[in-house]
Amino acid sequence: MFSSPFRLTSALGLVAALLPLAQLAAAQSPVWGQCGGIGWSGATTCAFGSVCVKENDYYSQCQPGAASAPTTTTPVSTPPGQTSTPTGSAPTGLSSIPASKLTQISNFGPNPNNVQMFVYKPAKVASKPPLIVASHFCTGTAQAYFSGSKFAQLSETYGYVLLFPSSPHSGTCWDVSSDATLTHDGGGDSQGIASAARYAITNWGVDASRVFAVGTSSGAMMTSVLAGAYPDVFKAGIVDSGVAFGCFALPGQPGDSWNAQCAQGQLVLTGQQWAQRVFNAYPGYTGARPKMQVWHGTADTTLYPQNFNEEVKQWTTVFGYPSTPISNTSEPYLPSGYSNATFGPNFQAILAQGVGHTVPLFEQQYLQFLGIA
Ligand SMILES: *[C@@H]1O[C@H](CO)[C@@H](O)[C@H](O)[C@H]1NC(C)=O
Ligand SMILES: *[C@@H]1O[C@H](CO)[C@@H](O)[C@H](O)[C@H]1NC(C)=O
């Protein structure tokens, strides 16, 4: 069971606040909870103060506020005093970033889709700090992921800097399907995010060897995209309930299009085919690949659990690892039913038995994987 009450609180707190399990959603879905979609059997009404907003055929979500349009990218659910307005430019040094306050930045480099970008700097920054890019789920925002996670709180302990991108698309899914976003320096949302990370390396003294990406659901897919298309920028990726790199590819359609075939786990390829999608994203790249940790629930009906198997095939092939794990164990700090399969030093795959969309965040474990904690 849990060895740490802290983790228990964190995991359950997130379930309640943000990411409900289907089986807990008997009466009403909480704010940020799923409230509908094909395959959804949980609650279809939302907690007081939130409304059910259809994101796509497969996903509706309880969003705060009455009758707010699903197309807005305006920050929602922002704790008072925790964001500031755009500065009109990106801070030229770490010292010009306000401490302990989510702050929007702009003009940080090529950003063809106008991804909004927010930075969080803790009160005490480590020397040559790591950088973590944390990408939100569909219908989410930078503010929602900021306030619904412990990434910012833990940065106050460990001294890393955070970037929280915010999707520019209606419904706020990420562009994880366009040719542009799936190509190194090819444009799309991924280029905007990579630009901000590069800006941080160049201007803020961030340690280029410790630039990491994490994300949930659509943000998990973006994390796979960043790991596949920008292996020169990102040194590790943590994918919470996402899909393999390139699985959502829909050339010629709007970049934030939903790929039902992939979502439902019907895009089944060989490891070689999956790896080729990664290699094609940045032809000629021969450097190291980011180490990857993927998490998925077996009861996920938004991004079906087959996607876990496809991710395993992809990254084991990219790394040249055997297709079966060298160890696969339960962990004292994870709930029972979670198995941690290790295929090699650079790839782990955690499967959560009976858990739906999405697996709750385990920030402290992520930081361990990233070598921060
Ligand atoms: C690890 O073991 C569990 C059973 O304990 C199994 O369900 C899971 O598929 C295994 N993971 C991998 C990646 O093989
Ligand atoms: C999974 O196992 C590996 C190898 O023992 C370990 O390094 C890692 O911390 C574990 N990951 C999780 C999330 O427990």
From TrEMBL:
Transmembrane regions: none
Q: Where in the cell is it found?
A: Secreted
Q: What is its EC number?
A: 3.1.1.-
Q: Which UniProt keywords apply?
A: Carbohydrate metabolism, Hydrolase, Polysaccharide degradation, Secreted, Serine esterase, Signal
Output the InterPro entries linked to this UniProt entry: AB_hydrolase_fold, CBD, CBD_sf, Esterase_phb, Plant_Biomass_Hydrol_Est
GO cellular component labels: extracellular region
Which of the seven top EC classes does this enzyme belong to?
A: hydrolase
Q: Which SUPFAM superfamilies match?
A: alpha/beta-Hydrolases, Cellulose-binding domain
Q: Which Pfam families match?
A: CBM_1, Esterase_PHB
Please state what the protein is called.
Answer: Carboxylic ester hydrolase
Report the source organism.
Answer: Lentinus tigrinus ALCF2SS1-6
Provide the taxonomic classification: Eukaryota, Fungi, Dikarya, Basidiomycota, Agaricomycotina
